[in-house]
Design brief:
Blueprint lengths: L9 H5 L6 H10 L23 E3 L2 H4 L4 E6 L10 H14 L8 E5 L3 H13 L3 E6 L4 H9 L3 E5 L6 H12 L4 E3 L7 H19 L8 E4 L9 H8 L4 E7 L4 H4 L26 E5 L1 H13 L1 H7 L16 H16 L7 E6 L7 H11 L4 H12 L7 E3 L3 H15 L6 H6 L3 H9 L1 H13 L1
Parallel strand pairs: 2-10, 3-4, 3-6, 4-5, 7-8, 7-10, 8-9
Antiparallel strand pairs: 1-2, 9-11
Length: about 450
């Protein structure tokens, strides 16, 4: 491993104060330069005072009695929590000797945020990178990747055409100098989110309501974030996990396909690293509801404050916090809270993957399609988006038949990419996932040894 560019252990990503003082001091100084490699030690959900960054949504906004807590991802290096799985996958590859600086080029299959993270981490660690992406994503994502020195290799389509990205990735694998950070299939993604995101969520919930987590809600792209639900369930077995999908691409819900506008989710597959054993519900949301919801929060907060009779400035803390998938997660959390009739002591945790900075072009497209919102249009849109419940769009997948359907779909996809029946079958036991999680301790020990070498 290249000890000239050290990075954090899983333990240090969960709690940066666990890092050596010299690394913490370098990371603090590195804030002045985004491309200082010491910024790898800012891969964490924590911010000032070592507290988990989150916002608690006003009940007037959510229409739910439960507390809806949102972990905020835009403060991660590169602007999204997806940098965590990108770094973890590269770090584990270096430790195993499969990836070597100066030898390999890093390949990142993605629809945006993971690719940005790959380009960023590769730049800091001294690798060249190529990000394979659909050609129909927001231009802000492409600009960010290029800013970090990543090359772009485009595939046809948009978010829901990820299978074409995976097929292109197979072409790159033929050259041994290319090493793929395969977010949809490699377990560092699962480990990062189960340990770092899951335990951060548990800590966030401890200060609200009854201190427990009743539900964790997230829309799967790679499904890495859903792994946080495994750790939450380990602490609170009664907690439920809900996966969100675009209604236009209802793959988990009913094997549906389609094109949609929620960048970062809805990838027409059960990903390899999705532990479907711990997913309890699947919920559908219209893609334009999520885009319109972002427009309301970002551009019409004052009008919403008056509509909801909130004190002036109450929604200012939400400015810049959300991207489209973050709004999707919030809408899903609100609807699940109402569907389960959760009370004021109950906590639902969800994620804002990134911030608004990579979506202005998407809102411009919304206004071009629907026209600018006037006052009454804002009011109508709020009622439709933030109060529109659709019980038929929530599917209970806790039963055996539903689990077998999801397992079967996973096997159909991933056997085509070389995974054996026996390996795929092993994923049907929780012991598989717990064993992968248990590798964190030895990995951290190996990284600490490498840093001393």
């Amino acid at each position: 491993m290249d000890t000239n560019v050290p990075g954090p252990t899983y333990r240090e990503m969960l709690d940066p104060e666990a890092a050596p003082p010299a690394f913490r001091a370098a990371a603090q100084a590195g804030l002045a330069n985004e491309l200082d490699p010491a910024n790898l030690f800012h891969i964490t959900w924590r911010g000032p005072g070592n507290r988990v960054r989150l916002v608690t949504l006003p009940r007037e906004l959510t229409g739910a009695r439960a507390n809806i807590l949102v972990l905020v991802g835009r403060h991660f290096p590169s602007g999204s929590h997806k940098v965590g799985p990108a770094y973890s996958t590269l770090m584990e590859g270096e430790l195993s000797g499969e990836i070597e600086p100066g030898v390999h080029t890093i390949i990142g299959p993605s629809t945006g945020n993971f690719g940005i993270g790959v380009a960023y981490v590769s730049r800091l660690k001294g690798y060249s990178s190529i990000v394979i992406m659909p050609e129909g994503m927001s231009r802000e994502r492409y600009e960010r990747i290029r800013r970090y020195g990543g090359q772009l290799d485009f595939t046809p389509g948009s978010e829901s055409d990820v299978i074409l990205v995976l097929e292109r990735t197979e072409d790159f694998k033929r050259d041994p100098k290319n090493k793929v950070l395969a977010q949809f299939e490699l377990l560092p993604n699962y480990r990062f989110h189960r340990y770092v995101t899951g335990r951060s969520a548990i800590e966030a919930g401890a200060g609200h309501g009854n201190g427990r987590i009743a539900a964790f809600v997230s829309a799967p792209g790679s499904a890495g974030t859903l792994a946080a639900g495994d750790e939450i369930k380990a602490r609170f077995p009664e907690a439920v996990v809900c996966a969100l999908e675009p209604k236009e691409c209802s793959t988990l819900f009913n094997d549906g396909r389609g094109t949609h506008r929620i960048e970062g989710i809805g990838d027409k597959m059960v990903t390899l690293i999705h532990n479907v054993l711990t997913t309890d519900y699947v919920m559908l949301l219209h893609d334009d509801d999520c885009v319109a919801g972002l427009a309301l929060l970002e551009r019409h907060a004052g009008r919403l404050e008056r509509l909801l009779e909130l004190p002036r400035g109450s929604l200012e803390t939400l400015a810049g916090v959300f991207g489209i998938s973050g709004v999707c997660n919030v809408l899903g959390a609100m609807r699940l809270a109402r569907h389960l009739d959760l009370g004021p002591g109950d906590n639902i945790v969800t994620i804002a993957t990134d911030g608004f900075d990579r979506y202005p072009s998407v809102l411009a497209d919304l206004e071009e399609r629907r026209g600018p919102f006037d006052g009454q249009a804002v009011d109508r849109c709020f009622e439709e988006v933030f109060r529109g419940d659709a019980p038929d769009d929530i599917l209970d997948v806790r039963g055996r038949a539903e689990k077998e359907r999801l397992f079967g779909y996973k096997e159909r996809v991933w056997s085509g990419f070389g995974y054996s029946h026996s390996y795929l079958e092993s994923m049907q036991a929780q012991s598989f996932w717990d064993a992968e999680f248990a590798r964190i301790g030895p990995i951290d020990e190996a990284l600490l040894r490498a840093r001393k070498a």
